[in-house]
Amino acid sequence: MAATRQIGINGFGRIGRLVLRIATARDDIDVVAVNDPFIDAKYMAYMLKYDSTHGVFTGTINVIDDSTSKINGKQIKVESKRNPEEIPWGYHGAEYVVESSGVFTTLDKASAHLKAGAKKVVILAPSADAPMFVVGVNEKSYKSNMDVVDDTSNEEAIEINMLRRSIANQMERDYNMPEIQ
């Protein structure tokens, strides 16, 4: 079995809650910390349990104190920092940070998570300058030295890739056709 990935989530809106739900259903991902300047552990638990977008969370949620929750038996620290450099990702053991606040979407701003101890940052909002990857389109061009990337689901990239493949296939058919006599 592969090693468990330790992740942190910055921003606990619709996307951050969805990331937490998905992660708690997997054995290979542990969310060790969630940061949102507008919540404490009790409000985080409420937002997760009664999500107006994703429905009622059916797992177990226990609030330990103002800064600690247990979701499906796994402890999660809750931070309320505005500045990503102040979030103790390294202290909590978060190797990867999912940036879902919608605020820190450039390479420069998202890199603040690296200064706080994260090793990699994945931006889940459109970024003006971070390399963007779409599974099925260009994920093979990812390089391990890329510390901040954008994984925004971009429907246009998928459509453009499908069009590109269609044109390439048509050209291949046109130029490799057997001679007609």
Automatic annotation (TrEMBL):
Protein family (similarity comment): Belongs to the glyceraldehyde-3-phosphate dehydrogenase family.
Name of this chain's protein: Glyceraldehyde 3-phosphate dehydrogenase NAD(P) binding domain-containing protein
Organism: Eucalyptus grandis (Flooded gum)
Domain (Glyceraldehyde 3-phosphate dehydrogenase NAD(P) binding) ranges: 5-154
Entries under InterPro entries matching the protein: GlycerAld/Erythrose_P_DH (IPR020831), GlycerAld_3-P_DH_NAD(P)-bd (IPR020828), NAD(P)-bd_dom_sf (IPR036291)
GO terms assigned for molecular function: NAD binding; oxidoreductase activity, acting on the aldehyde or oxo group of donors, NAD or NADP as acceptor
Keywords: Oxidoreductase
